[in-house]
Design a protein that fits this description.
two-stranded antiparallel sheet; 3 helices; elongated
Length: about 80
């Protein structure tokens, strides 16, 4: 999967307008950036943004694992106490 930069003004962005933060990985399911990367994006240098964008394809597998649905949720709750 390749990520095309989207231009918003003069700042390129991997945002695809699917803004949902995955609860385990803490990454956006749409662009694969962390919350800190998303909020700091406009303040980053072009070089820093390109570094983040280069890392995005490697992050995709972290979101493809299933969390177990209801059974997984119930197991996590019982582990928490």
């Amino acid at each position: 999967m390749t990520y095309q930069a989207r231009t918003k003004g003069a700042i390129e962005s991997p945002c695809v307008n699917i803004c949902v933060i995955h609860p385990d990985s803490r990454l956006c399911a749409g662009c694969l950036r962390s919350i800190d990367e998303i909020t700091g994006w406009s303040a980053m240098t072009p070089e820093a943004r390109r570094e983040v964008m280069a890392e995005l394809p490697a992050r995709a597998p972290r979101l493809n694992t299933r969390r177990g649905g209801r059974n997984g949720r119930m197991a996590r709750r019982s582990e928490q106490g």
